[in-house]
Amino acid sequence: MKLALLLTFILIACVPTAASAGMEKGSWKPLAVSDLGPSAPVVEKDADAEALFWEVFIEETQSFELSLKHYVRIKVFNERGRDAQSTVELRYDDREQIKDIAARVVKPDGTVAELKKEDIFDRTVARMSGLKTRARTFALPGVEPGSIIEYRWRETRPGNANNLGLFFQRDIPVRSVAYYIKPYSGMRYRPINMGDARFEEDKDGYYRLAATNMPAFREEPRMPPERAVRSWVFLYRAEDKKLGAEQYWKDTGRSFHAFFDARMQPDEEVRAAVAGIVGDAKTDAEKLQRLYDYCRARVKNLGDDASGLTPDERARLKENKSAADTLRRGQGTGGDIDFLFAALARAAGFDARMAFSGNNGDFFFDRSYMHWSFLGSTLIAVRVGDGWQFFSPALTYTPYGMKPWPVEAQDVLITDPKQPLWVRSVAAGPDKSVERRTGRFKLLEDGTLEGDVRIEYTGHLGVEKKEYNDDDSLAEREKTVVDAWKTQMGAEVTDVKVENVTDPFKPFAYAFHVRVPAYAQRTGKRLFLQPAFFQKGLGPRFPVATRRHEVYFQHPWSEEDRVEITLPEGYALDNAESPAPFNAGDLSNYEPAAGLSRDGRTLVYTRRFYFGKGGDQMLRFPVSSYASLKGYFDEVSKNDGHTIALIKKD
Fold first, then answer.
1. Has residue 11 got a pLDDT over 60?
2. I want to staple 532 with a disulfide (CB 3.0 to 4.6 A). Which of 518, 553, 594, 640 is the partner?
């Protein structure tokens, strides 16, 4: 999730493509005899494919356009490499364009197969915070073990090379990576997970930064954001004032205050509106909640994907020049809505400021990273009593009293004309983000389970569900539910109802009727039944024994299940036992329970689970603790899979 968006943390996503300085005329670099002949991986001995080189040429054009020309050459070693590398996906967002794609396959016998333009397709692959991530995709012809794959493209976007991320890892190992840039004057850079990487002067006015033998980057479940663990270089322009971190951020907080404060000033129109919005609220909390809820429910965020606006339509909209404009029009950008909330809060007598924090969805911020763009999230800070509270009213689905998860447990810079200050934000506890599930079923004698399900999501879980579904059609939302349960346990799902998708206040929910053949296993007179319906078919959270990256949970959460299963006529429990509850201290608790209704006809199973606790620390676990963490979740999974036996009475 990226927040509303006065200062964008501009980093180019790593994508599998390339072009080099000699590529304008459409030429391919000569192949060495050794490239075509039998060979073995160099960087990682078990690699299925390996990039021989990856080059990127970066240029700033006179039209204020940034151009990145990429060129990559890959050697395929076996069938797994062939399958993985035969299809290419080049991702981009609304601000970018992908041009001049060319690709070819050189087989071991030297024959060449070129990619045809009509075989290049475009599709949407993800949606987040108002931006669509798209991809140009193509399948390479005739790839076989021993082949050389090479392709190039040109990526363009508005702007320049300031605040640019240069990534050095791909999904396969790379023998040589090189970035070339011009003009270079005034550029500065910071290697991240790259050691002491340096730019050096090259020919034709370019500067070059290169690395060799880069291992593959592999995603893992619950890992930190890529930029926190991947090898990359941050490229930016800044004066070399040789400031320490404390002075740099003090100066930045003052500059930000001077730049933004005027947009937050209430005028007479805003002051006049406050009384009607606040109404009879007496306490500070009541007043702030009414102002917050008004901004997120009554003012349309034009930057959100659910607005229905295209990028061109957004670009043609009239700019709001004041908080009063936003109030009067009832719409605005995310920044406009934040400014309006701050102006209303000030008119109501509160001290409201612009504030900035890192964004845990992008990168783990540290004050030693002395560049403003690492503060990738904006907030409104309001003084309440002796402390500060933080608000993001532009994010329609974030409930009052909560912040978006990427800004929880973060150092937040509160702006001020004289003395900016840092305040640590607090994470909401697991009771704020709940997945609440209920199911009422009837078990048939052949093992079929049939009944009705309802699931609700609150807090961060609800925000995620609403953001995913809010610009889908009703049919698409229903299909999402049907496909998920079919994949999990082969369930037949009908009568789907998806509720409160765009409602700012009510929890996201869906309900459906379900039928699962062979849910219980029959052996002779017995049926073996898993009471934990909602966990049926789920594998372990951490399926592998080893780990490369630390484990990171985005936020605390909890789960509450209640399952009622009416037993088949003539069946009773056969020495059934419930799994025992256990915990991981204050960090987590697992509490299942099972029993029969008073009439003995219905099995009632409940399950309560939470992980994480509210506080100022993120849920990060080093690799050294992975075995213990995996063991805990494996035990949860084992107990979720617990079965009880039913026996037919004679």
1. no
2. 640
The mean pLDDT of 288-305, rounded to a whole number, is: 93
Task: Indicate if the pLDDT at residue 17 is higher than 80.
Answer: no
Categorize the per-residue pLDDT at 127 as very low, low, confident or very high, splitting at 50, 70 and 90. low
Euclidean distance between CA atoms 140 and 106, whole angstroms? 11
- Report which residue type is found at 581: P
Q: Check if the beta carbon of residue 433 is closer than 8 Å to that of residue 558.
A: yes
Q: Any idea which residue has 């037949």 for tokens?
A: 492
Q: Which two tokens stand for residue 370?
A: 């002395």
- How far apart CA 30 and CA 455 sit, in angstroms, is 59
User: Residue 519, Cα to own-chain centre: how many angstroms?
Assistant: 34
Please, which pLDDT band fits residue 237 given cuts at 50, 70 and 90?
A: confident
DSSP-derived 3-state class of residue 297: helix
Cβ neighbours, 10 Å, residue 139: 13
Query: What's the average model confidence in pLDDT over 267-286?
Result: 96
Contact 586, 429 (CB under 8 A): no
> What confidence score (pLDDT) does residue 95 get?
82
Rounded Cα distance between 275 and 267, Å, is 14
Dist CA 269 CA 326 (whole Å): 11
Residues 643, 530 contacting (CB under 8 angstroms): yes
Amino acid letter for position 5:
L
Token pair for residue 444?
A: 């048939």
71: exposed, middle or buried (C-beta count within 10 Å: 0-12, 13-18, 19+)?
buried
3-state secondary structure of 488: helix
- Sign of CA pseudo-dihedral 175, 180, 186, 187: negative
pLDDT, one tens digit per residue, over 469-518 is: 998 999 999 999 999 999 999 999 999 999 999 999 999 999 999 999 99
C-alpha to C-alpha distance for 247 and 245, rounded to whole angstroms = 6
Helix (H) / strand (E) element for 350: namely: none
Query: What are the two backbone dihedrals, phi and then psi, of residue 474, each rounded to the nearest 5 degrees?
Result: -60, -40
- Calpha distance 594→233 (Å, rounded): 54
Question: Environment class of residue 615 by beta-carbon count within 10 Å: exposed (0-12), middle (13-18) or buried (19+)?
Answer: middle
| Region 522-532 average pLDDT | 94
The single residue listed with the structure tokens 């256990």 is 582
Q: 237, 187 in Cβ contact below 8 A? A: yes
Please report, for residues 95, 176, 190, 198, the alpha-carbon distance to residue 235 in angstroms, rounded to integers and kept in the order given. Answer: 19, 20, 7, 11
Q: Which residues pair with 179 in a beta bridge?
A: 56, 209
Instruction: Express each pLDDT in 181-205 by its tens digit.
Output: 988 888 899 999 998 899 999 999 9
Query: Taking CA 326 as the corner, what is the angle to CA 323 and CA 328, rounded to the nearest 5 degrees?
Result: 110
Which neighbouring-strand residues pair with 59?
Answer: 67, 182
Query: Cα dist. 499→455, 477, 502, 506, 508 in Å?
Result: 10, 10, 9, 9, 6
pTM: 0.87
Is residue 63 left, alpha or beta, with left meaning phi > 0 and alpha meaning psi from -120 to 50? alpha
Query: Mean pLDDT score of the chain, rounded to an integer?
Result: 91
Interior/surface letters 419-451, b for 16+ CB within 10 angstroms, e for the rest: ebbbbebbbbbbebbbbbbbbebebbeebbbbb
